[in-house]
Amino acid sequence: MTSVFMTCFFHGNFALNQLKERHTMATWNDLEKYITSNFHVTPNAPDGVIGILFPIGNRQQQVFIRLKEHERLGQWAIVTSPIGKVSAAELKEITQEAFGLVCGGIVMLKDVVMLSHSVPLENLDINEISAPLIAITATADLLEEKYTGKDFH
Fold first, then answer.
1. What is the pLDDT of residues 82-126, one digit of tens each?
2. CA distance 40 to 25
3. Which residues have C-beta within 8 Å of that of residue 121, sequence separation ≥ 6?
4. CA 54/CA 37 separation, integer angstroms
5. Residue 127 vs residue 52, higher pLDDT
6. Which residues are within 8 A (CB) of 67 and not within 5 positions of it... i.e. 6 or more apart?
7. Largest CA distance in the chain
């Protein structure tokens, strides 16, 4: 049975009202099974992280998926793909270019610029992870080639 309800999350002075339709909740284990069954998972990913190496033409792009638990928002999968090390000027250009993206935002881990996207696991459909996964991978690879001229993976 499907029920529709209104939830409200408060963060600081902001309220996020969201209309949700309840379905079966997806879990991290469900997502992990889907990813390992449908993609070539790299064995050298850190604990708690799923790594995928995507072939893109004559290039390859690494993508990482990790679980993020939030006390009020539940479980989320965070998809990240490295772009590389760039100069401050290039970082400014990348962030301006990212403004026009349909999916993903620019983040940094240490000195590596990455493209990142998050999806809630609750009510997660396959297309809600597959489409962003492909978009993040392809876009990060294009940005990596454009701004670094290299193919790190």
1. 999 999 999 999 999 999 888 899 999 999 999 999 999 988 888
2. 25
3. 25, 26, 27, 28, 30, 31, 74, 75, 76, 77
4. 14
5. 52
6. 28, 48, 75, 76, 77, 78
7. 53
> Is the separation of the CB atoms in 140 and 81 below 8 Å?
yes
56 - beta bridge partners? 59
| Single pTM value for the model | 0.79
Q: Which residue has the tokens 């029920």?
A: 3
Q: How far is CA 74 from the centre of its chain?
A: 16
62 three-class SS: strand
pLDDT in tens, 18-60: 334 433 447 899 899 889 988 889 988 888 899 999 888 889 9
The two structure tokens encoding residue 15: 């309220």
What is the signed CA dihedral for 99, 102, 108, 114, rounded to 10 degrees? Answer: -130
